[in-house]
Design a protein that fits this description.
6 helices, two-stranded antiparallel sheet, Rossmann fold, disordered C terminus, alpha/beta, elongated, DUF218, 12% strand
Length: 205
């Protein structure tokens, strides 16, 4: 009996390890992809802002979105993200202002100023897409965040591809990359298991 229980526990542990490894591998693989199909909109996932000025992580995403827009990937850039406690500005509004200052016309910008994490924001984006009859998007975020962002977008009814940034603090060192992959693995597995998101470092919630 004890031997049978030991085998069962061993099998469960092996399954858990394989699940974690396969998820981390999928995150790593998705991070290396760069899909840019013609879409209804480019969606920039929000990150921290300081008095209306995007953080370095957020600015890297916005710069990447500018390049995609210039390439004709989509006619609209959607910035996403709500307001943290004590903030005067939302992430979405800060991102929109940054893009407007870069020369993007107002009719090509949409700020979805809702959500304190990726899941809430993506659900709000899904509603905005439904209202406008849009269905497809290219997501701009950090490489390690791409898989979970795609999954949440698809669950919100959006046909989503991702074009991750290749610059900024999230990709500077191997140690940073490894830490982000570990966090994203935990966050992705939590979402798949519970349907809920988790707050954390920029790009993790």
């Amino acid at each position: 009996m004890a031997d049978l229980v030991g085998r069962a526990v061993g099998a469960l542990l092996l399954t858990a390890v394989l699940l974690v490894v396969s998820t981390a591998t999928a995150i790593w693989w998705t991070a290396r992809q760069d899909a840019r199909p013609a879409s209804d909109a480019i969606v920039v996932l929000g990150s921290a802002q300081y008095n209306g000025v995007p953080s370095s992580i957020f600015a890297a995403r916005l710069e990447h979105a500018l390049r995609l827009y210039a390439e004709g990937v989509a006619p609209v850039i959607v910035t996403v993200g709500g307001r943290a406690d004590g903030d005067q500005y939302t992430e979405a509004a800060s991102g929109r202002a940054y893009l407007a200052d870069a020369g993007i016309p107002g009719e090509s910008l949409l700020a979805v100023e809702e959500g304190v994490d990726t899941l809430e924001s993506m659900r709000a984006v899904g509603t905005a897409f439904d209202e406008r009859g849009w269905s497809s998007a290219v997501l701009v975020t950090d490489p390690w965040h791409a898989l979970r962002a795609e999954r949440m977008a698809e669950d919100a009814g959006i046909t989503a591809d991702s074009s991750p940034t290749r610059q900024g603090p999230a990709v500077q060192t191997r140690t940073t990359q490894f830490r982000y992959i570990l966090r994203e693995t935990a966050a992705y597995l939590l979402y798949r298991a519970t349907g809920e998101s988790v707050a954390g470092a920029p790009g993790i919630g």
